[in-house]
Inverse folding.
């Protein structure tokens, strides 16, 4: 009904593994680099930006959603990957669909996954491992388009060093927000992958409208 992010509810969920990378520590704090640290940090950055544009960000709760009767516009699961083979590297995105054929069960979820993978690949030097259909429960939320993102392999030297950099994690957050905005743009409003900036997102979320939403 509108291209604006204001008034929308976006749910963000993060992976919580505390297996630490053997390659690097978090660049600013020196803490062990874990999925919990990386995913939580990216989530916080995405939440801050979406909040500035007037969107509400919450963690998905099936019971709460059924009581309130209000379905979020989109659910995003943010993860890092890990494999015993240290050569494994790159980012991937997932939607609810049939793994063998790729047939989507959630076309909006598939579109969101495609946009996020495109923006992430265009704005980073991480390998693009593509967009994939999966039947995971985290993607099969009743009435809510859902996308899963693997931001890289903490078991890989290159990926871990990139994910340890807070500046790089900000780029990831910007990419996710821009992909979410593109999901709601009309075809004639959309921009080529990698060209939309956060300042451009502001055009679809005017400050006066955001003030009305927040009660300022």
């Amino acid at each position: 009904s509108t291209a604006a992010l204001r008034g929308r509810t976006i749910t963000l969920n993060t992976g919580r593994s505390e297996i630490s990378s053997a390659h690097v520590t978090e660049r600013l704090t020196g803490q062990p680099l874990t999925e919990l640290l990386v995913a939580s940090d990216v989530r916080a950055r995405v939440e801050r930006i979406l909040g500035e544009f007037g969107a509400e960000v919450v963690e998905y709760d099936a019971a709460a959603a059924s009581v309130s009767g209000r379905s979020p516009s989109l659910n995003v699961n943010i993860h890092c990957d890990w494999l015993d083979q240290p050569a494994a590297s790159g980012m991937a995105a997932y939607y609810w669909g049939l793994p063998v054929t790729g047939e989507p069960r959630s076309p909006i979820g598939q579109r969101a996954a495609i946009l996020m993978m495109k923006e992430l690949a265009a704005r980073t030097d991480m390998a693009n491992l593509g967009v994939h259909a999966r039947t995971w429960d985290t993607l099969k939320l009743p009435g809510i388009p859902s996308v899963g993102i693997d931001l890289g392999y903490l078991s890989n030297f290159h990926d871990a060093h990139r994910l340890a950099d807070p500046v790089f994690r900000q780029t990831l957050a910007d990419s996710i927000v821009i992909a979410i905005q593109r999901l709601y743009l009309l075809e004639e409003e959309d921009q080529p992958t990698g060209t939309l900036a956060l300042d451009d997102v502001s055009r679809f979320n005017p400050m006066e409208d955001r003030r009305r939403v927040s009660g300022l």
Residues 209-216 have pLDDT under 50 and may be disordered.
